[in-house]
Write a structure and sequence with these properties.
single chain; 198 residues; mainly beta; four-stranded antiparallel beta sheet; 13 strands; globular
């Protein structure tokens, strides 16, 4: 099965890779001579660097449940398809061995049922009271913007912001003016500016 390749270090399927600007492999990569930085990812949709720690955070689509937010650390295994909260699309059957296994990383946040996370961004501005330091994740299936409140590497709360009219949110970015901007996944697509709550 193709998804098993996420556990195979001989290819880049289901991996996060780390390369130099010119395309070379950094000498301190966790697997010598390989661009692979981490493995066991299913379908990375968004990525953002934490503004304080510099760590890479990603969000991933799970299979019919089990969407995830992960902190990508060198040499770590994020489990797909051995561990997942999701299920087979057609039959609903269990995938893999369960939801956790020794030696495989636990997600920072899991969504069951799926919201289909997309782009993500850490907010560092001052336009929105109480939002500084939050992680924002767009949602395709969920047609919303999710705000995750963080305490270092832990998610402590979630707020679902439902713009009207409802649209599939493909990406979220902080603009140079300190506002958040959303890109919709519709025909025709639109760019929205998020206004502070009243």
């Amino acid at each position: 099965v193709l998804r098993e390749e996420a556990q195979n270090l001989e290819n880049q399927l289901g991996k996060v890779v780390r390369i130099m600007p010119g395309g070379g492999v950094p000498a301190d990569n966790p697997f010598p001579g390989s661009p692979v930085f981490s493995l066991g990812h299913r379908n990375v949709q968004g990525a953002a660097l934490h503004p304080v720690t510099g760590r890479l955070w990603v969000c991933e689509h799970g299979p019919q449940g089990g969407d995830e937010v992960n902190i990508v650390l060198p040499g770590r295994n994020y489990g797909w398809p051995v561990v997942t909260y999701g299920a087979e699309y057609v039959t609903g059957a269990k995938i893999g061995e369960g939801i956790r296994k020794a030696g495989m990383e636990e997600a920072v946040r899991v969504w069951v049922p799926s919201i289909a996370p997309s782009g993500m961004a850490f907010y560092t501005g001052d336009r929105y009271p109480g939002w500084k330091g939050s992680l924002f994740v767009g949602a395709l299936k969920g047609q919303m913007l999710v705000r995750l409140t963080l305490d270092e590497d832990r998610v402590t709360a979630e707020e679902r912001l439902l713009p009207e009219p409802r649209r599939r949110i493909r990406d979220v970015r902080q603009g140079p003016d300190g506002y958040l901007y959303l890109l919709t996944d519709e025909e025709p697509g639109e760019v929205w500016r998020v206004l502070p709550p009243k």
